[in-house]
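User: I'm writing a tutorial on reading structure tokens. Could you give me a worked example: one chain, its sequence, then its tokens, then a sentence or two explaining what the tokens reveal?
Assistant: Sure. Here is the example chain.
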Amino acid sequence: MVPGNANATALSIAAKQNCFAIEITLWWLIFATDIIVSISLYNFYKRVNSALSAITMGFRLVYSLVLGVSITFLASAGSVCIEALNRIQIFERIWSVRLIIFGIHLFLLGMLSIEGKSTPLRLSWIILFAGFCYILLHSLFNLGIKASNLASIIEPVLTIPMAISEIALAIWLIFGSVRSFPKSAVDS
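And here are its predicted structure tokens:
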């Protein structure tokens, strides 16, 4: 994308069609992975609180569906040259709104993991705080230019707990979570 220059953006996409096609394919892979993660997290936490786990999964699925909509806009940027910059900007706006939904998902997941007591408490609180950071940051980005400027200032600081929470949760789910539940709960 060439900010402010629709023609240069369209020419850049046209010159790199293969790279653009790979990018779209990878976005669809992320979309499919997000749906798998949604269902997996529900299955993992449903014995803690099935209603809250279902709501949390619902927000993650909405987040995934919004990604699908934004990918469609991004993909159409490659076929509609005059509108390429506009389509990419729509993708970015939808992406930001999507991250508010993701923040709600993380906040609920943090509450769920605190309630369940199987997730390390420190990790649970980091997940909860990261959810708050996503909600705050991307709400500011979408409230207007002054709020967006504030978001740009605080983003480097808030990105740290957001990244740490996701990486730590993924590592814990892969390597540590099996030890947190009795064998019969893991097998079912």
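What the tokens reveal: Residues 6-187 form one domain. The chain has a mean pLDDT of 85.
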